[in-house]
Amino acid sequence: xxxxxxxxxxxxxxxxxxxxxxxxxxxxxxxxRAVMLAAIAQGTSKIxxxxxxxxxxxxLGAMRDLGARIKxxxxxxxxxxxxxxxxxxxxxNLKNAGTGIRLLAGIMAGQPFASVLDGSEQLRxxxxxxxxxxxxxxxxxxxxxxxxxxxxIRPAPLKGARYDMPVASGQVKSALLLAGLFxxxxxxxxxxxxxxxxTERMLRAMGAKIIEEDEAGNCLxxxxxARLEPLDxxxxxxxxxxxxxxxxxxxxxxxxxxITGVNLNPTRTGLLDALQEMGADFAISNxxxxxxxxxxxxxxxxxxxSGVEIGGETVVRMIDEFPILMAAATQAEGETIxxxxxxxxxxxxxxxxxxxxxxxxxxxxxxxxxxxxxxxGPQRLAGGQADGHDDHRIAMSLTIAGLIAAEGAIVTDAAxxxxxxxxxxxxxxxxxxxxxxx
Length: 438
Ligand code: S3P
Fold this sequence. Notes:
29% of the residues lie in helices and 26% in strands.
């Protein structure tokens, strides 16, 4: 099977206008959920356009270790025969995948056997109490290691509970909804803002009962469900991957790019709202529904941008897009201010500090704040060398910034781009970017 090349670094030169019609790989969040839920469904699931990338392969490997029978027709087309899981031969290695470990913890809490969930050094630094504490409230026997992974889970009966989430998080909400499937009575989760709802959409399509208790959909009750129907889906393109191309199209002069089949789930489209407010020239067409999610094509043209203020609910709807928004903000006329985005500090890296530090190496001036940042533009990025810090979204955002650096740029530690966007460099080159992968 063909696996994507992991390039160690990217060299960028300014000037190559981006043109053409392209697609992006399948949505990462949906791909994680699809393999986990297919593995516990009763029957054979068919999953097309699955994201074959570092993070999701880790989840797939874990589900295989747990006994799921997975047939790969090619890298992105899978058939999974679900059924009861069985004990894994050793600790499950979720590598860098925060979504993988947190969602799987919810499923494992409901299993009649013990498990250990672990990952890379990077994953071992990320906070896990946000899932262990509420899962314990449901009766789970789950222990973290100094608040991080490895997580040790032993069998324990789960009882329905009510949990008010302190932060809006798709991963925490999903872990609880998944554990709630195995509880003795309904579980209610209350989120402070609209975190991504892919788990709810997929579970409902598989026959689970999830009730919205309020109009905004922020209070959800999941009922225990003994039987999940198998999936038959084509995963939509990932808006979080499209975001890099979208911003590249806006920033690189002379660009006119169309990205087809992109997921437009409203819990994910905060960046589009922000870019629209900034004056970005883009249009959405061909809207339809795919895998229970709204999808469409996005056409983008180079645009003069102006600054924007972002805070409150929009933050959770664009949580993974702040690194690329930072790159865009350096080119926007006036002030861009982001607030309420403290969560960025506990992603694969501290994305506020790391992105500010690396953009400064390319010549940007960035005012870092505890819960966000302030950038006044437009700024001239001279160029230089910046480092991806083994964080896919940092590496790809710096690459786009490098494309508009006056003297060119080199982005090192960039192999992590393949954690979510295999073929990132090749896609950009195909559109005309002056990018040399090494
Ligand atoms: C994700 C939720 C978000 C996001 C992550 C994927 C998911 O994390 O940043 O990339 O698939 O549920 P949080 O739940 O920590 O906000």
